[in-house]
Design goal:
- By secondary structure, the chain is an alpha/beta fold.
- The strands form three sheets. Strands 5-4-3-9-10-12-11 form a seven-stranded mixed sheet, with helices on both faces.
- Helix 5 runs parallel beside helix 6.
- The longest helix is centred in the N-terminal third of the chain and has 27 residues.
């Protein structure tokens, strides 16, 4: 009982900390550099997951037969749990990070959650994966940015989306969630070239990781728009952005 109480307290503390973090990031945003992150499409939306690991989803497009890919698990599966509990569909989770793999192995998982200990990239094969500077943090990245340690890296298995879908026998995706710590720009660009039918793409943008004249997400949003994807929702911090196509 005591262990359960501690778990509940830690959960709510995490949510409070992440909530205030979101507010802090909101006030740090450069309004001039984020004009491209405007909501364009009006449709139903529902926040799935906690304030740390959640995204907006259009629930009307999901059912028990939906195919959901969740790239970037870390130590938070609140988004995935909500998808499974609300719609009863399988969620395919992916993360090559050592701490994330260890976390998943320690959990009592819903049979609908199918985890794969590799990540998504623009090519298939082993790749160098930088671990975070903050040793208490979980998520690493293939991208070089201010929050990773260039001298602390591991080799992990990565695959392209086309190979993953081929291995799993899927021809379309209903929800594609991507939270890959700064690697999303090149990866999503490569996905768009595949012409894979995806109804909703949910991306956590890590523009704050990079010191650039304009946010890196601007070019990617333009590429998504050219393929018919429009923003229908975004989080308070404008990091978690949800796209939909007709």
């Amino acid at each position: 009982m005591l262990k359960k109480i501690k778990t509940i307290i830690n959960y709510h503390r995490l949510n409070l900390e992440s909530f205030f973090r979101k507010i802090g990031l909101f006030f740090q945003l450069d309004r001039e550099k984020m004009q491209h992150l405007k909501v364009i499409v009006k449709c139903r939306k529902r926040w799935y997951g906690n304030s740390y690991g959640g995204f907006y989803v259009n629930p009307e497009l999901l059912n028990q037969d939906s195919i959901v890919y969740s790239f970037g698990i870390g130590k938070d599966i609140s988004f995935d749990k909500k998808i499974m509990s609300k719609h009863g569909c399988k969620v395919y989770g992916f993360d090559p990070t050592p701490k994330s793999i260890s976390f998943i192995h320690s959990q009592k998982l819903n049979p609908l959650f199918i985890f794969h200990p590799f990540g998504i990239s623009t090519k298939t094969g082993p790749e160098e994966f930088y671990l975070p500077k903050n040793k208490k943090a979980v998520s690493g990245s293939m991208a070089e940015h201010a929050f990773i340690d260039l001298y602390d890296k591991v080799t992990v298995e990565m695959k392209t989306l086309s190979e993953i879908m081929q291995d799993l026998g899927h021809e379309h995706i209903d929800v594609l969630k991507i939270d890959i710590e700064g690697s999303e720009y090149d990866v999503v660009e490569s996905i768009l070239q595949l012409e894979v039918p995806v109804k909703q793409i949910l991306i956590e943008f890590h523009d704050r990781f990079f010191d650039t004249e304009e946010y890196k997400s601007k070019k990617l949003v333009e590429s998504l728009s050219a393929k018919g994807y429009k923003i229908f929702a975004k989080s308070l911090s404008a990091e978690e952005v949800s796209f939909i196509t007709e």
